[in-house]
Automatic annotation (TrEMBL):
It comes from the Eukaryota. GO terms for biological process: formaldehyde catabolic process. It catalyses: a primary alcohol + NAD(+) = an aldehyde + NADH + H(+); a secondary alcohol + NAD(+) = a ketone + NADH + H(+). Its cofactor is Zn(2+). Belongs to the zinc-containing alcohol dehydrogenase family. Class-III subfamily. It comes from Paspalum vaginatum (seashore paspalum). Residues 226-352 form the Alcohol dehydrogenase-like C-terminal domain. GO terms for cellular component: cytosol. This is Enoyl reductase (ER) domain-containing protein. Keywords: Metal-binding, NAD, Oxidoreductase, Zinc. Residues 49-184 form the Alcohol dehydrogenase-like N-terminal domain. It is found in: Cytoplasm. The keyword rRNA-binding does not apply. Signal peptide: none annotated.
Length: 400
C-alpha cells in the first residue's frame, strides 16, 4: 500500500493484501561480496505474520560481520540482511491470527521478539522469548521454516532468499513475525525511531536495565561505536558522575562528549594496561564497565577495570566463535561480576512504546540526532557499509 513521506497510508492506495509484491532489495549473495540491488518477490504474510513497508533502515556492525561471513556456522546465502534501523515501517498487510497490529500501524521491527504468552515473556526476569528470541543461526520464518523472499531469474527459475535476525530490513517490503513488530505512536519522528531497533535500545537498556546505573556512580565504556555511545547516553541520563570512554579512535572522543563521556582514554597510546589507568583515575576501579567491541582482550580489560567487591561488567560486543571468555573462575571471588544482555534487557513490544511516548512528550530526552552521522538513499547502501567499516559513521540512515 502506498505511504506518504511521514509513513501514513494515502487515500486511493492499491490494496496488495494476500498478493505477492515485487520490490527492490539489497541482496547478499556471498560472504565478502558487495550487496546487489535486485528485484525480489515478497510473499504475503502467513499466520501470525505481518508484511511492512520499510521507510528507513540503518546499518549495524552485526550486519557487517554477517556480510563478511566472519562466523562460518552462520553463513547462509543469498540473504537479505538488515535489522537495526529496520527503521520505521508501516504495516502493509497482516496474516491470520494477528490481533495487535493492523494495516496502517506504524511499527519498529525488533530482532528479539516478544510473543507475550510463553513462560519467558511472562517472566519479569528476562526479555527473551521462547519462540521469537534472537537467533543468529535462524534464516527462515517460525511458521513453516520457509522464506518469504525469492528472486526469479531470466529463465523463470525461482531462488529462495533467506531472512536475517527476524527482521531483514534491506528491502522495500519485509515480512516479520508479529512478535517482532512493535506498534509505536505515529507522531514519532521516523528517522529517529529507527535507531530503537537495535543500537539505542541495546546501549541505553544495558545502562538502565542490566546494570541499573545509579546516580553519582562511575562508568567505563569500552568501544565508542553507536552501542557504546548509547550506553554513555543511558548512564548520563541516570546521573553517573563520571563516564570514561575507551577507544582507539581519538575522533570519537568529541562525539562521546556530546553523549555524556567525561574522560577519554586512547588505548593505543597507553603505556600500561588500560585497566590500571582506569583504576588510578577512579580510586580502585569503576562501579560499572561495558564491553562493546566483541574483542576478548578488551573484555578482560573491562572486567579488571571495575572495583573489587562490587564492580559489574556488562558484555555487549558480539564475540566470534569459538573463542571463550578470558577469565579464570577464581577471579570472580573478589566480588566482581560479569553478565551479558540482549537488546538492553528491554521487552520490545511491551516496553518500547512507552519509551517512544516519553520521547514525544519530552519526558525523556534521548539524543537521537547525535547518533545519525549520515543520511543516504537506499541505492547507496554499499557506500554506507564502507563508511561504517572505515569508522567514519555511527549510523547512516538510508531512506527507501
Amino acid at each position: 500500500m502506498a505511504a506518504n513521506g511521514n509513513g501514513s497510508l494515502t487515500n486511493g492506495a492499491v490494496c496488495t493484501l494476500a498478493k505477492p509484491i515485487k520490490c527492490k532489495a539489497a541482496v547478499a549473495w556471498g560472504p565478502g561480496e558487495p550487496l546487489v540491488m535486485e528485484e525480489v518477490e515478497v510473499a504475503p504474510p502467513g499466520r501470525l505474520e505481518v508484511r511492512v513497508k520499510v521507510l528507513f533502515t540503518s546499518i549495524c556492525h552485526t550486519d557487517l560481520s554477517f556480510l563478511k561471513g566472519e562466523n562460518e556456522l552462520q553463513r547462509k546465502f543469498p540473504r537479505i540482511l538488515g535489522h537495526e534501523a529496520a527503521g520505521f515501517a508501516v504495516v502493509e498487510s497482516v496474516g491470520e491470527g494477528v490481533e495487535d497490529l493492523a494495516a496502517g500501524d506504524h511499527v519498529v521491527p525488533i530482532f528479539n521478539g516478544e510473543c507475550g504468552a510463553c513462560v519467558y515473556c511472562k517472566s519479569g526476569k528476562t526479555n527473551l522469548c521462547g519462540t521469537y528470541r534472537v537467533n543468529a543461526f535462524k534464516s527462515t520464518m517460525a511458521l513453516d521454516d520457509g522464506t518469504r523472499f525469492s528472486v526469479v531469474d531470466g529463465s523463470g527459475v525461482r531462488c529462495p532468499v533467506y531472512h536475517f535476525l527476524n527482521t531483514s530490513t534491506f528491502v522495500e517490503y519485509t515480512v516479520l513475525d508479529a512478535a517482532c513488530a512493535v506498534k509505536i505512536n505515529p507522531e514519532a519522528p521516523l528517522e529517529q525511531m529507527c535507531l530503537l531497533s537495535c543500537g539505542i535500545s541495546t546501549g541505553v537498556g544495558a545502562a538502565w536495565n542490566t546494570a541499573d546505573v545509579s546516580a553519582g556512580s562511575t562508568v567505563a565504556v569500552f568501544g565508542l561505536g553507536a552501542v557504546g555511545l548509547a550506553v554513555s547516553e543511558g548512564a548520563r541520563l541516570r546521573g553517573a558522575a563520571r563516564i570514561i570512554g575507551v577507544d582507539i579512535n581519538p575522533e570519537k572522543f568529541t562525539k562521546g562528549n556530546d553523549m555524556g563521556v567525561t574522560d577519554f582514554i586512547n588505548s593505543k597510546t597507553c603505556e600500561k594496561p588500560v585497566h590500571e589507568v582506569v583504576r588510578e583515575m577512579t580510586d580502585g576501579g569503576v562501579d560499572y564497565s561495558f564491553e562493546c567491541t566483541g574483542i576478548n582482550d578488551v573484555l578482560r580489560e573491562a572486567f579488571l577495570s571495575t572495583h573489587d567487591g562490587w564492580g559489574l561488567t556488562v558484555v555487549l560486543g558480539v564475540h566470534a566463535t569459538p573463542k571463550m571468555m578470558p577469565l579464570h573462575p577464581m577471579e570472580l571471588f573478589d566480588g566482581r561480576r560479569i553478565t551479558g544482555c540482549v537488546f538492553g534487557d528491554v521487552k520490545g513490544k511491551s516496553q518500547l512504546p512507552g519509551i517512544v511516548d516519553k520521547c514525544i512528550n519530552g519526558e525523556l530526552k534521548l539524543n537521537f540526532d547525535g547518533f545519525i552521522t549520515h543520511k543516504m538513499p537506499f541505492s547507496d547502501i554499499n557506500e554506507a557499509i564502507q563508511l561504517l567499516e572505515d569508522a567514519k559513521s555511527l549510523r547512516c540512515v538510508l531512506h527507501l
